[in-house]
Automatic annotation (TrEMBL):
Region named Disordered: 492-520, 546-587
One GO CC term on file: THO complex part of transcription export complex
Record's compositionally biased regions (Basic and acidic residues): 492-519
Annotated signal sequence range: none
UniProt xrefs under PANTHER family: HPR1, THO COMPLEX SUBUNIT 1
This protein's name: THO complex subunit 1
Source organism (scientific name): Prunus persica
Highest taxon of source: Eukaryota
GO biological process, one term: mRNA export from nucleus
Length: 609
């Protein structure tokens, strides 16, 4: 221990004497790196030395980080404790000793220090943030550093030590990676213990409406626990009724530009308080304060943004009536923010931008906090002049070659009765349906739709088992072929046919069917007419006028008598029938002559042959 005391007093950078000091104290088996037992022995020595230095600083009445400030490292003077920490940090950084030893000493130092001295200790931690965040040190000490910062936050007052708490939170945000799950509220639990206390009974001599005062501050109970509004409809009604009263009061008492300029926001930032001042005597002044109004209105927007946030379960989603009320209230709040001086419109745009960015973090948390960091792809150095040779496969391509190799190793593959197995269409498309779900968070480059063999096989299955899904390929691509029952409601709505399209398609098919039916009826009618005329001709041809009828008709006319109408009609009809029959006989004779002529020709040619 005395060797380290002398080393602390040595001038110059730690690399000139740090390793030699460790070798002199421990006498390690390896010259440049300590083993486990040696590390434990050195840690005990350093923790004891640190405790003695802190005790000496307290007894002298000096601040512990400035105790013995007489060491010149070339640029600035340091105290004994910062000098000891620098030596240990150098040894950890160069892996001469165990990397978590510096974090253990910092934790001990914060536990032994008062809150005033802890600010100086934390200032040293902030100055060494880049070194402490190196991978070889961070992996060994991240949990110890997280525990140290959390212990400091528990000891600090959230009302009086706001700046110091903010420094610790900013350090943790920079020290830990963005995807560190320990810093994320995965379950979305709200701090319901942050209660805003206000007066329940009206004091004497109050000049404001005490009912409005109670209504105004009762809104903080709902801002503290937003999920309770969707679970209990009575709480939502109570909240909306109270919010309407507050918004009506803000609208009835607008602030002028002079009142906005009178309240300097820069001066208020210097006297910022983390909690509201809820005294009833201050209610009148607070209503005239533009920054106070902005705080309340921004709280309303944050609450509405949480209720509208996507990705919740069905029971946590607001009802349709709640959505309408949220929309109307949100419009009124934004209008009031725009009217609140100074620069109300500019302030509203900034708040909207912040809330829009917050949605990205909400989705990231609900996707399981996937890491943002990606390892860089290793680039293979290709020698100049060297040509890339394409791989040559035995069977022409990779798939057939693997199949051939697999068949060689499994000679009974062809005789196996289970070798031909066609999967169900839903089982086959399930991986692509999971890729299409936004909640899965699968990046586009890893989707199954990029696998051409997978898509080609899927189209063959759909063509055989799901023609309706196969028909959606021309309009929506490969994602439209996925069965709708596998998709989420949001994704299913993109690929479902609209009712108007279905009705138009049905009407079009009915029109086509009716036109086709009319054409068939016309063809059938024409065929019937032709058949009827043929039958009529045959019947008329079979009827020939007799000589008796002709004689009777001639006798009647030779006697000079005029025939009666019935006889005239009969005579005219008989005449028509006779003419038609004669025409048919003439046509028959012509056809018979053609047939006879042909037959005679054949008969005449036979002897010649």
């Amino acid at each position: 221990m005395e060797v380290f005391r002398r080393a602390i007093l040595q001038p110059g950078p730690p690399e000139n004497f740090a390793l030699q000091t460790v070798q002199q104290v421990i006498k390690p088996q390896k010259q440049t790196k300590l083993v486990q037992d040696e590390n434990q022995l050195l840690e005990n020595i350093l923790r004891t030395l640190l405790q003695e230095l802190v005790s000496s600083a307290v007894q002298s009445g000096e601040q512990i980080m400035q105790y013995g400030q007489s060491i010149d490292d070339g640029e600035t003077t340091q105290g004994h404790i910062p000098r000891l920490l620098d030596i240990v940090l150098y040894l950890c950084e160069n892996e001469h000793i165990e990397g978590g030893m510096i974090f253990q000493l910092l934790e001990d130092l914060t536990e032994m220090s008062t809150m005033r001295n802890c600010k100086d200790v934390f200032g040293y931690i902030e100055s060494k943030q880049d070194i402490l965040g190196k991978p070889e040190l961070f992996a060994r000490g991240k949990l110890v550093m997280l525990r140290t910062c959390n212990q400091l936050l528990r000891r600090l007052s959230k009302a009086n030590d706001v700046v110091f708490c903010g420094r610790i939170l900013m350090f943790l945000a920079h020290f830990f990676p963005l995807s560190e799950r320990s810093a994320v509220n995965i379950k979305g639990v709200f701090n319901t213990s942050n209660e805003t206390k206000y007066e329940k009974d009206p004091p004497d001599g109050i000049s404001i409406d005490f009912n409005f005062y109670k209504t105004f501050w009762s809104l903080q109970e709902h801002f503290c626990n937003p999920p309770s509004l969707t679970l209990a409809p009575t709480k939502w009604k109570k909240f909306t009724s109270g919010l309407m009263v507050v918004l009506n009061t803000f609208e009835a008492q607008p602030l002028s530009d002079e009142e906005g300029d009178a309240n300097s926001l820069e001066e208020e930032a210097a006297n910022f308080s983390i909690k509201y001042l809820t005294s009833s005597k201050l209610m009148g002044l607070e209503l005239k304060d533009p920054s106070f109004r902005r705080h309340i209105l921004v709280q309303c927007l944050i609450l509405f943004d949480y209720l509208k946030a996507p990705g919740k379960s069905e029971k946590d989603l607001p009802s349709d009536s709640m959505k309408e009320e949220i929309k109307s209230c949100e419009e009124r709040v934004k209008k009031l923010l725009e009217m609140t001086p100074p620069k109300g419109e500019n302030f509203l745009h900034k708040i909207e931008h912040i809330l829009e960015r917050e949605k990205n973090w909400v989705w990231w948390k609900r996707d399981g906090c996937p890491p943002f960091e990606k390892q860089p792809a290793e680039k293979k150095v290709v020698q100049e002049g060297a040509k890339k040779r394409r791989p040559r496969w035995r069977m022409g391509n990779k798939e057939l070659s693997l199949l051939w190799k697999w068949a060689d190793q499994n000679p009974n593959a062809l005789t196996d009765p289970q070798r031909v197995r066609t999967p169900a269409i839903t089982d086959y498309w399930k991986p692509l349906a999971d890729d299409m779900d936004p909640a899965a968070g699968i990046e586009a480059e890893y989707h199954h739709k990029n696998n051409r063999v997978y898509c080609w096989k899927g189209l063959r299955f759909s063509a055989r088992q799901d023609l309706e899904g196969f028909s959606r390929f021309t309009e929506f691509g490969i994602e439209g072929v996925v069965p709708l029952e596998l998709l989420t409601p949001e994704e299913r709505s993109k690929y479902q046919a609209k009712p108007n399209d279905k009705s138009k398609r049905a009407k079009k098919e009915e029109t086509k069917g009716a036109a086709h039916q009319v054409e068939e009826n016309q063809i059938a009618t024409a065929a019937n007419e032709i058949d009827g005329e043929g039958i009529r001709a045959v019947l008329e041809a079979s009827v020939t006028p007799t000589d008796t009828d002709a004689t009777v008709a001639t006798g009647d006319m030779s006697q000079g008598g005029s025939p009666i109408p019935d006889e005239h009609q009969k005579q005219s009809s008989d005449t028509d029938v006779g003419q038609e029959a004669g025409q048919m006989e003439a046509d028959a004779e012509v056809e018979a002559g053609m047939i006879d002529g042909g037959m005679d020709t054949e008969v005449d040619l036979d002897p010649v042959g």
